[in-house]
Amino acid sequence: MGKHSRRRTAAEQKTYNVETEWTATDLALLEELKRAEALLPKNAPRALLSVRLSVLTDDTTSPVRQELDLRMLAREKGCRVVGVASDLNVSATKVPPWKRKQLGDWLNNRAPEFDVLLFWKLDRFVRRLSDLSTMIDWCLKYEKNLISKNDSIDLTTTAGKIMVTIIGGIAEIEAANTSTRVTSLWDYAKTQEDWIIGKPAYGYMTARDKNGKVVLVHDPIAYRALHWARRMAIRGVSANRMVTVLVRSGLCGAGLTTSTLLRRLRNPALLGYRVEELKNGGQRRSKVVLGNDGKPIKVAEPVFTEYEFDTLGAALDRRMKNQPPRQPSGATKFLGVLICTDCESNMMVQVTRNDFGIYQYLRCQKCKSGGRGAPNPMAIYEQLVADVLSVLGDEPVQTREYAKGAEARKEVERLEGSIAYYMRELEPGGRYTKTRFTKEQAEKTLDKLISDLEAIDPETTKDRWVNVHDGKTFRERWEEGGMEAMAADLMRVGVKCKITRTKIKGIRAPQIHMKLLIPKDVRERLIIKQDDFAQVF
């Protein structure tokens, strides 16, 4: 008979606790290692220990054992431990090193504080080859070493450098092959009547037929919602009203929006055809994929007949006539910056159409009916721009860059060695004391060396972050990039603008009052910090 195994439930798995896991023996060993570390020279390499564990079980190496083993490894390598990045209950498959809470902070913000990154075993550090390749590239860029206790990874050794080359090559080949395979699979799937890959359009779900083949069938709940929405559209009911009823009835989720509903109702996939997304002018639309015979490829039974689909589209067109095209950047400028004073939700643009024209209003999301609509959003945007420029426009644009102190340290060591040499030879019996001329020349040289040493800023001998000014002000940056650039910077910095709408008797439009909220550390926040991992998938 085969063996049966059972995975432990969350309740059966141990929860790591710092206070209870450290035994008296562990603490004694820790103190011994710290005493040995205190004897290291001041210029000893600085080590960061990376400890990670998904779930603590009887078969896993505890975080305490990982840390102690890594401290012993640091002692063997002659490194001083400057920190322990302990990320527990974190999956290495799902969360790469730079996104983990503790290790990510060290990598993104505290890189100057360590020279070598130690980890217990490769699977304790990463589980994806692409993540390891990314970390190796990062270490080479910032001149950090990467050492594993139980694997042949050490960027300073010949074997380690060979391993880096192999890993990087494999990762590059795998990425190219994956891209080719995925593209080829999608291209092939588009031409087939069978459902091979992809997420079904709204209204459908996957199932197995009697032969075990994957097919598309109607989703009964979505089918009801679509046909109800079609009947309402024919009667002239607004999409906004349909969304409210569908959400309240439970046929659709709370996140349904009018744009999503309209996109679903206009999707030609509801005719049972295979479709692909067509992006045109910022609008998300789907188009029918034609087969080799020039006819649409049918992949499922239709939700709507052609007559039902055409009359639905005509009904939607009657209400959507003369609506402005969708903007790629969205209808609302400064989304996330403009907030309602009363409910503190985002102010968003809503478009109203009547027989006299199309009107835009800024409304919030939580006040009843969106609160009092603020007409003329552009006037509010312009006032916000003027207020921000008056406060932050003259601030210099600074970018945080990594400065290495290796060259300055070498120069300091050279100068100190030379000064020690001249001081020794100027002592009685030294080579420069034999004649007055040689003594005077040596003393001048010594004074020059001491002056050069004093001129070196001690901070330049350290790896550090420096803020580099590119000569521009934020006023110039925002004039070049427009409102989108300003909005992105304000969101990054955390600047908010509260909108208060006050009713005035006899006047339909409310009075608008704007209050700009600037964080106290805004100058520090304005510094642009480049993300080394932004392009990593």
Automatic annotation (TrEMBL):
Keywords noted in UniProt? DNA recombination, DNA-binding
Query: In what residue span(s) does the Recombinase domain sit?
Result: 201-322
Recorded hits in SUPFAM superfamilies, A to Z, give:
Resolvase-like
Q: Name one Pfam family in it.
A: Resolvase
User: This protein's superkingdom?
Assistant: Bacteria
Coiled-coil residues = none
Report the protein name in the record: Recombinase family protein
Q: Which residues form the signal peptide?
A: none
Matching entries from SMART domains are given as: Resolvase
